[in-house]
Amino acid sequence: MTKSTLLAACGAFILSAALAVPAAAQAPAQPQHTGIGSPVAILDLPYLFRNHARFKQMDEVLKTEIQTAEQQFLAEQKALKEKAARLAEFRPGSDEYKREEESLAKADADIALRVNIMRKNFAEKKAKNYFDVYQEVMSYVTWQATENNILLVLNFNGDPIDGSNPQSVIQGLNSTVLYKHRGVDITPVILDLANRGVQIPAQYLPNVNAQHGVPTQR
């Protein structure tokens, strides 16, 4: 296990009550009029997540947890290596040697098992962070689209294409949005609402929609 094993494993993904979506804020629940005058709008989700203040805070907390777990496992692995080095003190094939060898094998297997469980737990936390913020963002989008007569909101990635990066070029070629007028981009509006913690009207919250059998995604 390298120093960044857990961090790298969970970083591919994808908390506590203190990190939960704020239920209410001081700002009044008034729609932010986009003024785009178009039934179609676009939203840059990658940009929004990179600049969503609460999501970044949640991500930093998770990274700290991962680094703490890494240090713990590294310390255990170091102690195990030191114990393995002392195995040379026993005669190979002797009862003492076999007992120490078996003990080392069990300890190593235990560490590997706990590392795998920890990876899974951190990956699930990462996914939950994304999902919680995504639901919040979709509630803002639904609210703003309804109030501004927007019939369709498309997800797009506004990052510039890097001609030296094949993956970036492919993503650009596969983009659904080939041209956009600046006025149809509601990303700044949604990001501002989220970072200010503007209260979302109850009828646009995911749990309310679910209770009334209204699909939040189709």
Mean pLDDT: 80
Number of strands: 2
Proportion in β-strands: under 5%
Number of domains: 1
What is the helix tally?
Answer: 7
Order of adjacent strands in the largest pleated sheet: 1-2
Q: Could you say which structural class the secondary elements and strand pairing correspond to?
A: mainly alpha
Give me the strand/helix succession: HEHHHEHHH
Spatial gap, N to C terminus: 42 Å
Rounded radius of gyration (Å): 25 Å
Coarse shape: elongated
Main β sheet profile: 2 strands, parallel
Helix content, binned percent? 55-70%
Stretches where pLDDT is under 50 for at least 5 consecutive residues are 1-29, 208-218
Describe this structure in words.
With 218 residues, this protein is mainly α. The chain has one domain. The chain has seven helices and two strands, in the order αβαααβααα. It has helices at 5-11, 45-51, 53-85, 95-147, 166-173, 187-196, 206-211, and strands at residues 40-43, 152-155. A two-stranded parallel ribbon has the order 1-2. Helix 2 (45-51) packs parallel to helix 6, helix 3 packs antiparallel against helix 4 (95-147) and helix 4 packs across helix 6. The longest helix is centred in the middle third of the chain and has 53 residues, at 95-147. The protein is elongated. The two termini are 42 Å apart. 18% of the residues are buried. Residues 1-29 and 208-218 have low confidence and may be disordered.
